[in-house]
Structures are given as C-alpha cells and as structure tokens.
Design a protein that fits this description.
The chain is of the alpha+beta class. It has one domain. Helices cover 36% and strands 19% of the residues. The radius of gyration is 20 Å and the shape is globular. The two termini are 37 Å apart.
Amino acid sequence: MNKIASIKEYIDCIEKIRDWNKFEHSMAFRGQGNSAWTIRSTLERAGINRVFLKEYYRSIDYLKPEINSLGHHFKRNLNENGYDFNFSDYREISFSNFPDIEYLSYLRHHGFPTPLIDVTQSEYVALFFACEDLDERTDAKVFVFRGDFGSTSVSGHPELHRIGHYLESDRRHIAQQSEYLLTVQFQRVNDHSEWLFIPFSSFLEWENPYMGEGKDGINIENQMLFEIEIAGDVKKDIMEELAKMNINYYTLYLDEDSLIRKLKYDFLRRVRND
C-alpha cells in the first residue's frame, strides 16, 4: 500500500498505476475517510448483507409515490402480478441490465440504503471524499479500480458489475462523475434460481489473487485493485488544494446545506489562519 503526504504525491501515484495498466477502459476511484474501513454498500452498512433482488425492488417501489411528490417521475413497476421484471432470468442481470438503476442512483445519493457502491471517474473527487472529514487523527484511503475490474461473470458464483456514468439520475450523479459497482449472485431457491445482492467482500474473496496489494508473487501489472493511503494530518492541506480546483462541498452536493457547509469551511479556515 502506498501512503502519501501531499496532493502531488497522490497524483504521481495515480500516474504510476496508469503506466502499469495499459487498457482501453477508464479507471474508477473511491475515497473513504478512514483507511481501516472496508468497501461496503450503504445496504451492508444498514445491516442487510444479503437480500433477493425481487424482495429489495418490491420494497423500494412502494416509496415512489412519496418521492414523486417532490417533483420526480419514477415509474411504478409493481402490479398485481408482482414486480415488472423476471428476477429468475440469468441473462438480463448478467449483461448488467439492472432495472430502475436511475432510481437506485437517486436513492444512493440521498443516503438511502442501496446495494450500489458509488465510485467516480475522477481521482480528484475521490480524494475529496477521502479528506472531507478533516480528521487529522485518522488516515484516509482511495481505492483505484482498473478499467476491467469486475468483468468476471459466472453463473452460481459472486459477480461484480460496473454501471457506467451515462444514465439519467440525480444531479449529484453528474457533479460527482459517478459510476457504481454492484455485487450479485444467481442462487438456487427450491426449484429455480434467483438473483441475490451480496456483500462486496464476497466477490473479492472469490475472484482471484490479483485483488491484493502487490504482495510477493503477484505481478503488479496484472493487479486490478490498488489502495492509496492518505496521512490524516495532510487532509486539510489537500482540501485547500482541491478548493482551488473548484472541488468543494457545494460543487459536489449541489444543495443549500452543502453551500452553507462550504461557507462554514471557508470561514473557519480564514479565522483559524488569522
């Protein structure tokens, strides 16, 4: 694992990873404020590690009328015959044709428990999310996913799907240059099989040795997942550098609360510096 103490060291590290990995697909990034945290979806953090897609989608479909009262237009997909999707069909999900993905993206960006693991196309946005808590006592981490990360698809085994940026969703999706990872498994249930949302760790444990951190015997050029640790005592300096790039609370969250949070940060920085 690399540990950096400045934004320059961070960018140098990213460029080294790019040089190691020559591929057509773009990399993805995820920033987390505590380097000890593993990658988990908000659904996992809410205590729901495994749930059948049919059950989860049916539950969130009931929420649409209240959400649509805010001016949204999410279509109801639940009728007298159940949810309008065949969750026993392996092909649809295996080709990343997840239903209601725009709706799931909206829910994720507003804090609702979803199976989506949000990542970004921008290494700078990921760095912001890693450093935004300004907690000097805690080191942060940015995960770097190679462009072909999650390409494995085998029926009956854990699968990881990468959902690209080009979908209609909440404006935060655009501002944060968001993409998403989803971990699923096609599991036997009585006389048929159904799709199940599973923990991200289940895919990592099953996939292959290249998910590690460049340990002995592993070819770094074939590695798919990298980790960059950020020293806690440089979070403030990095946030100041990102602010010069117009990467701040408001430009990434785009609401009144985030604007006030940005102004609070600017105010405290000026007062404390004085």
